[in-house]
Amino acid sequence: MTESLSLSRTEVLRRYPNVVAHVIAESLGYATPSLAAKIVADARDGRQNWCEWIVFCYGGDPRKAVSDAIRRRHMHHGYMASYQRARSLVLEAATYGLEPMLASWF
After folding, report:
1. pLDDT digits (tens, 9 = 90+) for 26-38
2. Beta-carbon-side half-sphere exposure of residue 16 (alpha carbons within 13 Å)
3. How far apart are the C-alpha atoms of 17 and 38, rounded to whole Å?
């Protein structure tokens, strides 16, 4: 993909808030909204992602993480995997630019 077709993290947060929220929930809160948006952008653009979670669990392929997040979206509830909580974090990040600095549940 050419650079002009790539989306910024903010654009990804605004265009794909549900997918970003499911990536956060799938990561059990490891991913912040910005990191989850980067994972979604890399998956969309066919790039590898070097965050520890993606490298360790998916061999650097963010498409597998996004695919798992979408496939298992109905399981994203409860303590560390709350889609509702993740969605509110994504909306706050997209609207106000505010998000957790470490992990999403801290």
Report:
1. 999 999 999 999 9
2. 23
3. 12
